Amino acid sequence: MQVFDDTVCTLGEGPMWHPERGELFWFDILGKRMFAKGAQRREWVFDEHVSACGWVDRDTLLMASASGLWRFDIPTGDRELVTALEAGNPVTRSNDGRADPQGGFWIGTMGLNAEPYAGAIYRFYRGELRQFFDRITISNAICFAPDGTRAYFADTFSQQIQTVGLDAHGWPAGEVEVFVDLRADDLNPDGAVVDADGAVWSAQWGASRIACYGPDGSFLRAIEVPTSQASCPAFGGHDATTLFVTTAAVGVQDTNAGKTFYGPAGVTGQREHQVIL
Question: Which of 107, 115, 186, 254 is most exposed, with minimal Cβ within 10 Å?
Answer without folding.
Answer: 186
